[in-house]
């Protein structure tokens, strides 16, 4: 497995795996499959150009990805949000998510991010345990954060303080 930054040239593979993620796990993402499938591959290329994303590859196949969105305003530029973590089920349990998250955290630290935020859907215990193992701590649960097919889902808000030495 190779973990590396993604760029616009990876847009086709990224878009395909992202659509799979949105279709298979609609409660895990704020984006929806129905909306994103209408977007052209150029939209995926723009997303990869606008934000740092990492992908986990085995040979030429993309198995997972995660992105980082940094705050731009002066008062909260010390913060960034982990977005869009996904690992294909056939690669689960092989350390892919852990490696993707480690690459993201290393990049965030190297670029002066002091506070990492993320949300995880309540009930997704595997993801929550991954984030807790990386040092993230819950600071609250947002009830009714998203709705999928009429069902309400809460989101657990988590934080990792990068201002302390690793």
UniProtKB/TrEMBL annotation:
Gene3D superfamilies documented for this protein: 3.40.630.30
Q: Where is the N-acetyltransferase domain?
A: 1-158
Q: Which InterPro entries match?
A: Acyl_CoA_acyltransferase, GNAT_dom, NAT_camello-type
| Pfam families in the cross-refs | Acetyltransf_1
- Key words, A-Z: Transferase
One example GO MF annotation? N-acetyltransferase activity
Instruction: Give the SUPFAM superfamilies listed for this entry.
Output: Acyl-CoA N-acyltransferases (Nat)
What name has this protein been given in UniProt?
Answer: GNAT family N-acetyltransferase
Taxonomic lineage of the native organism: Bacteria, Pseudomonadati, Pseudomonadota, Betaproteobacteria, Burkholderiales
């Amino acid at each position: 497995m190779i973990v590396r930054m993604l760029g616009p040239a990876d847009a086709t593979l990224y878009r395909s795996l992202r659509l799979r993620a949105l279709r298979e796990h609609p409660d895990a993402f704020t984006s929806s499959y129905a909306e994103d499938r209408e977007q052209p591959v150029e939209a995926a290329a723009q997303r990869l150009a606008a934000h740092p994303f990492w992908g986990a590859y085995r040979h030429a196949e993309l198995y997972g990805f995660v992105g980082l969105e940094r705050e731009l305003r002066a008062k909260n530029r010390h913060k960034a949000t982990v977005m869009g973590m996904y690992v294909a089920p056939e690669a689960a349990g092989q350390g892919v998510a852990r490696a993707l998250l480690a690459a993201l955290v290393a990049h965030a630290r190297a670029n002066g991010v002091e506070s990492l935020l993320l949300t995880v859907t309540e009930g997704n215990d595997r993801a929550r345990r991954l984030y807790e193992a990386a040092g993230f701590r819950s600071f609250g649960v947002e009830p009714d954060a998203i709705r999928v097919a009429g069902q309400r889902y809460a989101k657990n808000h988590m934080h990792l303080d990068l201002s302390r030495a690793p």
